[in-house]
Amino acid sequence: MWSVLRDSLTLLSPLLPVAVHQSPLHQIKESAPFVVEHEAPVSHGGAWATAFDMAADAVSKMTVEEKVNLTSAVFGPCSSNSGGVPRLGIPGLCFDDGPSGPRYTDFVTQFPSPFFAAASFDRDLLYKKGLHIGKEFRGKGINVALSPITGGPLGRSPYAGRNWEGFSPDPYLTTQLSGLTVRAMQDSGLITCSKHYILFEQVEVCKGPVVNGQRTDCQFPSVEIDDKTFKELYLPSFAESVRAGTGSIMCSYNKINGTQTCENSVAMNKIMKDELNFQGFILSDYGATHSTVPSARNGMDMELPEAQYFGDNLIKAVKAGDVPESRLDDMARRILLPWYASRQHEDYPAPNFQKYDLSDEFEQDGMVFKNEHVDNRGDGHILARKVAADSTVLLKNDGVLPLKGIRRIGIFGSDAGAPPTVSGCGPDLFCIVNSERRYWNGTVTIGGGSGAAYPDYISTPLEAISLRARSEKIRIDQYLQDDATHFESIQTVAAASEVCMVFVKVYLVEGWDRDNLRLDHEGEKLIKAVEKSCAGKVVVVMHTGGQTIMEDWIDLPKIAGVIWAGYPGQESGNALVDILWGDVNPSGKLPFTMGRTESEWPPSIIREEEDETYPRSFFTEGLAIDYKWFDKYNIPPRFEFGFGLSYTSFELSHLSFKETHIQLNDTVQQTNEKFAGKADLYNVLWTASVNVTNTGEVAGAEVAQLYVSFPESEREQPPRHLKGFSKPYLKPGQSEVVHFHLRKKDLSVWDVKHQMWVVPKGKFKLYAGHSSRDLPLTLKVDMQETR
Ligand code: NOJ
């Protein structure tokens, strides 16, 4: 079995696996002489030409020690700090997580997680969110945000514990949101770090005992992947981040076909720095550096969070000639380039907070750091509430919502109320985790680990619903536990409620993958117990970080409403109230597939063979992940990708397609990707359009979706790919024509033999509709010319 699999991978993959398997990189010892297979070229920075010159000039005045200082971590107040060159007035850089707001500190807005916010399918709104988060980072003096998560994980496996930090397993949606988030955050003057490069899909296999709540003896898997899957599925979102001008990239913990990512010359030098023409710096995830010479020579530019392999070891390696000084110059210049390009040398606040610590002053190693409690939140809470409300996905509604004419509501589940502490949980927000399962005794607004940010307050569902209920003269009663064994109490509250709202959750946290796709705390039992005795109808609200099996309860007679409220951030309750009472018409659409049983997803198990020193994960499903897998194998999902209900109805008509030639003004850095034909890979060569009409009785927004099938000759392609979306807001009876711009790359496939992007000749099929399975309009397009 294994040999068959590995042969087919090799056959399919003339570039990546062959280059990596045959390369000496994973066997290299630091003392052994070796050949760098791919030198990363210097292209003078493209749009950053002036900054490049400034960086090169500064580097030319530095000693080896000073240059190494830039590449290595030093002690400081931030999540990590790199060294500076005080003699030349160049400060070190302050790095901090993460995607939902600055982590570890106070007076920040805790925004919805990216996976949930992706459900809004709203480019303008998410641009505003990115820009606002960027300004909060800047206010704290953070030079580099370790964010966004641009496709690592992409979300191949529903079991991955960190999918909620990224956008969506659909590569088109993730490329779109990666590019615009990098642009938005950097428009605040910040430097972004697109992560985790690359194939960081599941976390780790841990065999050891649990110590202080953490499992030990963890090994990250090696991802075994072919060239086509790499180029078409996992790389495009990083390409968009580079095009949008991301200043840095974080190399990930896993291996690729046996070689550590942070010392992988193919991934870093050849693909990232040459093919994608990335001019900024690659920094290592914390602890993902495993060597000095191979890491430096194969493309890593900075080691975080400590100078274990760089620092003095790098100085020695340069002086011994094992790392050429020209390569050190390149590292230093790459680090300074985005700093100059973002004009941080002109005006940027110094770090004014202390990680982990919210007190006013903090002393360590004889240094005193002050927390100035800088408050750059402004109207962040209003934006956070809008993002959460516009991302909320209404999955089931038999007419119970929006709420009207009711006088008694029962609220059930610990997820409705406040957690006992927030920052008291520590930076990872998981002190209320017990060692067997991860339980959070209060409402889940965000997951744990690097994707978390402290909320300065939480609008809990109980608080927000109670406030609204007071003004509507509604009686509220509650049972804020998950334990359905106190059946009598549940029964008493439920029997007195016209609407029973059950709050359930799945709390995900960095460092753990999921054991199963069920609710935490056996939430299913709570739902069933409430359903049994509720006097009226049951509405289930799920605060889950991703795919959740609902089959035990969703078809029970009194389950009248189901809402996916994701990880909504600090404005959780207020945003939910907006939806429950119809102040905001739900318009969120699932950015992933909800299946019916766990066995329906591709097998994503990480394998450990007796004779191997590290676990391996075989990406044999190729391009068919999430809805593409369900479509390929004709599996009916419970709720498909792109699905979400509204309080109104929409109709699509008049799907059309025409050739265009538009150059979008969205590129900071051109890539060197190879392609057939003359027109640029990122020019819009075609435009599809469709008419959207609100046929119902209330105003609302609809995500019109465009899917494409490639010609039949492209046998590896799954049945349909999302290639466009647009979200018009329409009053009842109003219509609007929306346009889907198709760039050359959007209709290209990676030609493994010729190593280039090619638009295949033949019949494409276009589909327009309301979700990946509700596609009323189709159109055939014959492509015979290479443009
Ligand atoms: C490890 C995580 O994988 C990464 O995402 C994060 O940026 C660093 N820790 C710093 O917290």
Automatic annotation (TrEMBL):
The keyword Signal applies. Pathway: Glycan metabolism; cellulose degradation. GO terms for molecular function: beta-glucosidase activity. The keyword Secreted applies. It comes from the Eukaryota. This is beta-glucosidase. Belongs to the glycosyl hydrolase 3 family. It comes from Kockovaella imperatae. It is found in: Secreted. Its EC number is 3.2.1.21. It catalyses: Hydrolysis of terminal, non-reducing beta-D-glucosyl residues with release of beta-D-glucose. Keywords: Carbohydrate metabolism, Glycoprotein, Glycosidase, Hydrolase, Polysaccharide degradation, Secreted, Signal. Pfam families: Fn3-like (PF14310), Glyco_hydro_3 (PF00933), Glyco_hydro_3_C (PF01915). Residues 702-772 form the Fibronectin type III-like domain. Beta-glucosidases are one of a number of cellulolytic enzymes involved in the degradation of cellulosic biomass. Catalyzes the last step releasing glucose from the inhibitory cellobiose. InterPro entries: Cellulose_deg_GH3, Fn3-like, GH, Glyco_hydro_3_AS, Glyco_hydro_3_C, Glyco_hydro_3_C_sf, Glyco_hydro_3_N, Glyco_hydro_3_N_sf. GO terms for cellular component: extracellular region.
